[in-house]
Amino acid sequence: MLGKLLRTFLILPKLKRLNIKWKMLLLIAFALSLMVIKHHFRIKKYLQKINLCWDQEAEEPQLSKWFNPKKRPDVITTTGWLAPVIWQGTYDRQVLEKYYKRLNITIGLAVDASGKFSYQDLQQFIQSANKHFMIGYNVIFYILVDSFSRVPPIVLGPLRTFKVFLIFRDSMWEDLNFIYMKNLHDYIITHIQHEVNFLFIMTANQIFKDDFGVETLGKSVAQLSAWWYFKNVKNFPYERRSKSAAFIPFEEGDFYYHSAIFGGTVQEVLDLITEYQKGAIQDTKNGLSSTYERHLNKYFFIKKPTKLLSPEYNWDPSFRIPPQIKCVKIAWQSKGV
C-alpha cells in the first residue's frame, strides 16, 4: 500500500507537467486558429473590396462619353437595337484608353492559318497585326495551323507574344470551317479562356493597314461585310432554306456580317462557336449543308451584337473605295478564298 502511494506521489508531478504542456499546446492551437480565422476574414474582406472595385470599373464608360454618331451623318452609326457602328470620326479613343489601361487587360487574337491560306498570308497578317493591332496592350496571338511548317519566323514588339496550336482533322467532317471551329472551341476551353479578357477571331488573308484599337472592344463584336453593306437587305445571301438551322426568312434581316472577323468576351465567342456547331450538325442530320458565314449571320440575327465594326475595318481593296470609307483599317485579300 505504501509502495502504491509512493508511486502515485512520484507520478503526480509528471501528470501535472503533462497537463500543463497539453494546456499550453491547446492555448497555442487556439491562438493559431484565431489568427487563421482573422486572416481568412481579412483576405475575404480584401477580395470583396477588389471585386467591388472591379465591378465598378468593369462597366465601360457611357457611350456618349466616347462615341458621337452625329460626326458621320453619311452612314448608319446606330442600329435599331441601339448598338454603335464604329466609323472613323465617331469615337474618342483616348477616353477608352484611359479606362482600359487602368484594367491592364489582355487581348487575344486567334488566326485561322489552315490549309486554305498560304504561308505568305500568315506572314503578312502577323507582321501587320504586330504593327497595328491593340498597340500598347498585352496581346497574345493564337496561330492555328495544320502543320508547324506553315509558321513563318515571328518577331513581335513589346507586350505581345504568340502561341501555335495544331488543327486536328476529324474523319467525320470535310468542312474546313467546322474542323477549325471545333479545334478553336477546344483550345479556348483548355487554354485561351484563362489568359485573355477579350478575344478576336480572324482569318489569315487580311492585312492591317491602320490602328485597330480599343474602340473595337465589346461584349459581342460583329464585322459588317464590305460586299453587302451598300446593298438592299432583300438581296443579302442569307440561308433561305427553311429546313436549315441558319434559315432567315426573306422579309427579315438587319445587316450582313463578314465571317473574317468577330470578337468579344471569351464567353460570347464560345457561345457563338457552340451555336454554329449545333447548327452545322443539325443541318448534316437533315442532309443539308450551309456555309459557316450564314450560320454566323443567323446567330447575330437572333442574338444581336453589342458593337458593329463598319466596312472600314475590313475593306476589299478590289472594290472602288466610296466616299463613306474614310480610313481602311484592314484590307481583306479575297483572291483565291
Short description:
The chain is an alpha/beta fold and 337 residues long. Helix content is 39%, strand content 16%.
Structure, described:
Strand 2 (106-112), helix 4 and strand 3 form a beta-alpha-beta unit. The protein has an eight-stranded mixed sheet with strand order 1-9-7-8-5-2-3-4, with helices on both faces. It is an alpha/beta fold and 337 residues long. It is globular, with a radius of gyration of 29 Å. Residues 43-57 have low confidence and may be disordered. It is 39% helix and 16% strand. The chain has two domains: 15-51; 69-332, Spore Coat Polysaccharide Biosynthesis Protein SpsA, Chain A (Alpha-Beta Complex), CATH 3.90.550.10.
Essential attributes:
337 residues; Spore Coat Polysaccharide Biosynthesis Protein SpsA, Chain A; two-stranded antiparallel ribbon; 2 domains; N-acetyllactosaminide alpha-1,3-galactosyltransferase-like 1 isoform X4; transferase; 7 helices; 10 strands; alpha/beta
* CATH architectural name of the largest domain: Alpha-Beta Complex
The CATH topology name of the largest domain reads Spore Coat Polysaccharide Biosynthesis Protein SpsA, Chain A
- Poorly predicted regions are 43-57
Largest sheet: 8 strands, mixed
| Shape by Cα distribution | globular
Relative helix content = 25-40%
What percent of residues are in strands? 15-25%
Give the averaged pLDDT, no decimals: 87
- The domain count comes to 2
Q: What structural category characterises the helix and strand content?
A: alpha/beta
The number of helical runs is 7
Distance between the termini: 107 Å
What is the radius of gyration computed over CA atoms, rounded to a whole number of angstroms? 29 Å
Q: What would CATH call the class of the largest domain?
A: Alpha Beta
Q: How many β-strand stretches?
A: 10
